[in-house]
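Translate sequence into structure tokens.
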Amino acid sequence: MKPFIVVSDGFDKSLFNQLVSIEELQVHPKSKVPPEELEKLLPKLNGLVIRSATTVTAELLEKAPNLKYVIRAGEGTDNIDKVACQKKGVKVSNTPGSNSNSAAEQAIALMMTVLRKTAFAHASIKAGKWEKALFNGNELWKKTVGFVGFGKIAQIVAQRISGFEPRVLFYDPVVKQSSLSYAKQAATLDEVFKNSDIVTIHVPLAPKTKDLVNQTYLEMMKPDAILINCARGGIVNEDDLYVHLKEKNIKGAGFDVFKDEPLPANSKLLSLDNLVMTPHLGASTDEAQLRVGEMAMHQLQEFFLKNNLLNEVRA
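Result follows.
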């Protein structure tokens, strides 16, 4: 019997057509499957390809007794219960590096948008106004950019902004040095928050990073500093963030990720005039999705047709 594969959260159209055409696999004809439809497919499911919209829980696994393999089309696997998967013998992979460049560019885009108040100026002019005096911003040139975490995406950001002649300060418990002449390792996280003009978050969501950036660290920031988060929602305590932005204790922030996604319509964050928000667009480029799809399709074939597990992620 052919392995039955479901792609639940969308896929590059041309690649999905290629995937469906693989004779050795039985692929569900839709590349985007709503939760209620996915639940009906679980009993016969062998392989599942997800992005961030689908959460693989212990409950889902109980309903999918024939599931053998889950691929996270992207890097972050915090929406997969990896402990439960290991107990059930379900293998988990991601597609590392496939969207790193796009995620890095999104962080830089938010930096510039917050510094120059572009989003608010755009909204103003769309409303028929010409409020030039309200939107005096700041340059990125020669600023100190602090990195909380200095993995692959963070290092791409640091490389891409080199033309602005920044001073880069980073704290990472694993990465101890950088090949960039303008990058310096901070001895503590405190040092990053106290000395940076821009603080950008680049750590995964894990128990030790949940609410990592809270009142304690926000109070350390310069009053004219900005905070960028394109990593994961839940790393920054949103209640504390709201207070500090509302009271103008920091100048502004740019967030692509939130604790609850989609962001609730009654979220306090929506009332702020110094927070730029985007709906988790870090990997949302044609180029990234093509790379993600190519890797996921290759890994599916390797696993089911050659018994070869690539890019495994364990608990």
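Note: Residues 220 and 248 are 14 Å apart (CA to CA).
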